[in-house]
Amino acid sequence: MRVKARPNRVVLTLGGLAVAAIGLLDGVRIQPNRIVSGTAYGLPETLGLGPTLLVVLPLLVMVALAARPTRGREAVMLLLATVMLTVMPWALSGFIGRFIDASAGAARAALSAGSWLVGFALILMVVDLRQRLQAGAAVTAAILAVTLGSLVAALTGGALDTLALVQEYIVRRAAFADAIINHLALVGIAVGTSLIVAVALALWMRRVAAVRQGVLGVLSFIQTIPSLALFGLLLAPLAWLASRFPLLSELGIQGIGWAPALLALVGYSLLPMTRNTFIALDGVEPAVIEAARGMGLAPLQVFFRVRLPLALPLLIEGIRITTVQAIGLAAVAALIGAGGLGTFIFQGLGQAAMNLVVLGALPIVLMAMAVDALLKALADAARRGETLDRT
Amino acid sequence: MIELDNVSKSFGSEKAVDGISLDVPAGSLCVLVGTSGCGKSTTLRMINRLIEHSDGMIRIDGHPIRDFNEVTLRRRIGYAIQNTGLFPHWSVARNIGVVPRLLKWDKAQIRERVESLMALLGLAVEEFADKYPHQLSGGQAQRVGVARALAADPDILLMDEPFGALDPITRSGLQAELLRIQSRIRKTIVFVTHDMDEALRLADQIVVMQGGRIIQQGTPTQILAHPADGFVETLVGGRDRGLKRASLTAVGDMMEPIEQADDPPAISVARTDSMRLAVSLMLWHGVSRLSVRDDNGDTVGILPLRRLVDDVG
Fold first, then answer.
1. Which of A6, A57, A227, B80 is least surrounded, with the fewest CB atoms within 10 Å of its CB?
2. Considering only CB atoms, which chain B residues are within 8 Å of A381?
3. Could you count the other beta carbons within 10 Å of the beta carbon of residue B40?
4. Using one digit for the tens of pLDDT, what is the confidence trace for A35-49?
5. Complex confidence, ipTM
6. Rounded to two decimals, what is the model's pTM?
C-alpha cells in the first residue's frame, strides 16, 4: 500500500484534542435539580487512570495511524471513529449512572465541555476521513444509520433520560414539535416570499440600469438595522393597521406575533437573495445569449432554456445563504411572540436553565447544517448540468 | 442572395455604419474585413436583425428583412460566432440540434441531421455526441459551432470571426475545412474577420471597411493588384503582397508539362498547393525546380523558378 507523503493533520489535531478533553476537562455536571449548577466530574478522577486509558486507547491508535496514513489506515481510522461515535451515547449513559439512579427524582446530568468536544471531534474526524476516502453513498448511509440509530435508540429507550437536555425535552414534547414546525414555517414562507420578490427585483434591475444601485442600497440599509430594532419598528405600524382594519387582526396580523416576524425575515432575506439572483442572471456569458438570439430563440426561450438554467447554480447558492441566515434569525423572532425554537432559548436564558437553551439551539444548528448540505448538493448537481439536459 | 442598399446604423449620434451598399450573390462567400470598430460586425448582425438598421434597405432573395418575423428570420439564417457561444449546459448533439428542434422537426430526423453534420465536420459521433462544450478543444468547439449554424440547412450563413480565437495551425485547418464544405454545399456566406490573410484565402468577394464605410470591394486578386488607398495597401501587407498573391495561386495553374527525357527534381509539391509554398520550398532547399504531384503521388509537371518571375506578375 502506498504511503502518503503527508500526515493527516486533521485527525492528528482532532484526536489530540479529544484525548486532552477527556484527560483535562469535565465530562458531565451532576445537578440535584433543574436550577442548581451542581458538581462537575471528569473521567480520570471518577474511574481512575487505568479505565480512562482504555477509553483513550482508540483515539491514541488513530493519532498514531494519522502520522503516516495509507488508504487502509484511513479506513481503520474511519471505522474506529464511527464505532466510538456509536458507543458514545451508551458510555455517557453508563457514566451518568454512576452518580444518578434513573428512578430518582429531580437529579439530572448536563453534558460538560469535555463531552461536547469529544463528540464534535469524532464527528469532524468521520467527515474528514469519509471525504479523503471518497466513500460512496452506501458507506455514508451506513455510517449515518449506525451512529444516528444508536443515538435514537439511547434516547427513546430511556438510557439518556437522566440527561438534563432530555428532561427538558420530556416536559415539552408537544411544544417542541410545535416549535420546530413553527420555525420551519417561518423560514420557509420568508425564503419563498423573498425569492419571488428577489426574482422580480432582479429582472427589474436588469431592465433598468438606474434602478440597480437604488435597490441594492435600500436592501443593504435594511440589512444594517439590528433585528430587535426592526421588530420594534414594525410593532407600531402593524398594531395601527390591525386596529384600523378589523379584518387584518382577524387574520392574525398584529404588532407582535408572526406578522412582524415574517416581514422582518423577508426584509433581511431580500439583500442576499436579490444580489445573488441578479448576479446569477446577469453573469451568464453574453456570447451564449447572443448565440441563442442569433439561432432564433424567442426572448422567453432565451430566458427559460438558456439564461435561467445557466444562472441556476448561483441562484441556488443565494437561496442557501439566505435560508441558513433566516434559520438563525428566526430564533430572535421568538422575542415578539412569533414562536419557533427561539422560544426555548429565551425561556432558558430567563430561567438560567442552560439545558433549555441548548434544547432550542441544537435543532437550529442541525437544521442550518442540513439545509446547507442539501442545497450545496443541489447547486453542484445544477452545475454539472446533468439534471437540466432533458428535453 | 443578400442585398444591402445604402444601409446605415446610428447609436445615438454616432454612425457605426454609414450608407453601405453591397450585393452578395447566392452561393458566394463574401468576407467583410477591417480593423476593430470599423462596423463589420454591426453590418453582419443587421442581416439577421440582432441589430436593427436605422436607414436604407436590406433584402434577402428580394424581400426586405423587416417583412419577416425576426425569430423566423434567424431560424432561416445560420449563425456562428467567435468563442462559439455553445450552450455550456447542453451536450454537443443537443447544441447542434437546437434550430431543428425549434423548427419542430421530428426526433429521428434531427438525429440523422446531427449525425451527418458531425460527420461532415470530422467529429466522430460516438466520441463527441454526448460530450459537453467544456470538454472540447478550441478547434473542436468551433467545428460544433459551424455544425450548429448549418443544422437547419439554411441558405445563408453568417460567421462573425468564427476562427479568431484559435491558434494559427487550427485556424488554417478550419479554413481549409470551410472551403471544402463550401465547395460541396454552396451556401451564401457572409464572413467577418480582421485578418486579411484569412479574407484572401476564403473570399469570392472581399469588402474592406473603415469607419463604417466600404472603401473597396472586389475579388481577392483585384484587391491585391489594385488597393484603393494606403489603408488597403497596409492591410494587404504592403511590399509583402507578392507573397500573398502567390498564396492565392495554385501550383497546378503555373506548372509546365513534364518532358519525357526530364529527370524530375527530388523536391516536390502537390498541384493544389499554393505558389507561396512552392517558393518557400525552393528557398529552403536551394533549388530552382520542383516536381509537381497529383493526389495519387504521380508526377504530373515541373515548376521552374523562371515561371514565377515571368508570369506571376
1. A6
2. none
3. 28
4. 777 888 888 888 888
5. 0.79
6. 0.76
